[in-house]
Specification:
The chain contains eleven helices and seven strands. With 253 residues, the protein is of the alpha/beta class. It has one domain (2-251): Rossmann fold (3-Layer(aba) Sandwich). It has a seven-stranded mixed beta sheet, sandwiched between helices. Strand 3 and strand 4 form a beta hairpin.
Length: 253
């Protein structure tokens, strides 16, 4: 099993959408039963991108009951299983996060026990910014993908992300990380200039495939589908397929 964390230092970069769509692209390449997603974002939005209805079983509720994740993974219509965060109260969220603070190896342990597939890939969606969820992901991930937009706001978050990566490197020097550009629009001068600046600044640490701005991504969510199903021949779908191929190569699958 390979674990990939999808993270960002700011919201609004399309991180959750990218998580679901990368998972779909990987499932298309790897086949049924080999790709799963886990939602560690309290917004609890990941399952919507995969056409999964809200369920009683969830990451938060299972943990608060002292149960493992057996049965928490829900099969989507798109050959990707999903473990939702769950719709919970504020007090339940706080209690859940307190457990994560006390148990730094919680995520890794549950992934091993969840039966998500020994030869598969698990993608973990996280809330933006530093958090206990981010610490859990960094403790067990094989690879971290950091989502950026080609704008000044994302560029300004890079120093904070780099500082976090340096701290994690002390504990896990073997952990690989790459930046991924999302919603690239080269028709916009600022977007094009920031894209070039990011490539100059990050070099080979930026993934060789960026995801172009494509209205079909938002339209697909309205229909609760991955964009590769909604518009398989669109620009974003083409980019995601290429990104999935690169990701498989990096994971040596």
């Amino acid at each position: 099993m390979s674990v990939v964390g999808i993270v960002s230092m700011k919201g609004g970069v399309g991180k959750t959408s990218l998580t679901a769509n990368i998972a779909m692209a990987l499932a298309t390449r790897l086949g049924p039963g080999r790709v799963s997603v886990v939602d560690l974002d309290p917004q609890n939005a990941l399952h919507w991108h995969l056409g999964v209805n809200g369920t009683q079983a969830s990451v938060c509720k299972q943990t608060l009951r002292g149960d493992g994740w057996a049965g928490a993974a829900v099969a989507s219509p798109f050959e990707v299983s999903c473990v939702p965060y769950g719709m919970v109260s504020e007090s339940d969220r706080e209690a859940f996060e307190a457990i994560l603070v006390k148990s730094p190896g919680w995520l890794g342990k549950n992934l091993q026990q969840a039966g998500l597939g020994h030869d598969g890939v698990v993608l973990i969606d996280t809330p933006p910014g530093p958090s206990v969820y981010l610490k859990q992901v960094f403790a067990c991930a094989d690879l971290v993908l950091i989502v950026l937009l080609a704008d000044a706001g994302s560029y300004a978050t890079i120093p904070a992300m780099e500082a976090w990566l340096e701290d994690m490197a002390v504990l896990r020097p073997e952990l690989n990380s790459f930046y991924v550009l999302n919603q690239v629009d080269k028709t916009q001068v600022l977007n094009r200039d920031v894209t070039e600046l990011l490539h100059q600044h990050l070099g080979e640490r930026i993934a060789p495939v960026g995801i172009h701005q494509d209205e079909a991504v938002g339209e697909a969510l309205a229909f609760r589908q991955p964009v590769l199903v909604y518009d398989p021949h669109g620009q974003a779908s083409h980019d995601l397929a290429r990104l999935a191929n690169w990701l498989i190569d990096v994971l040596n699958r």
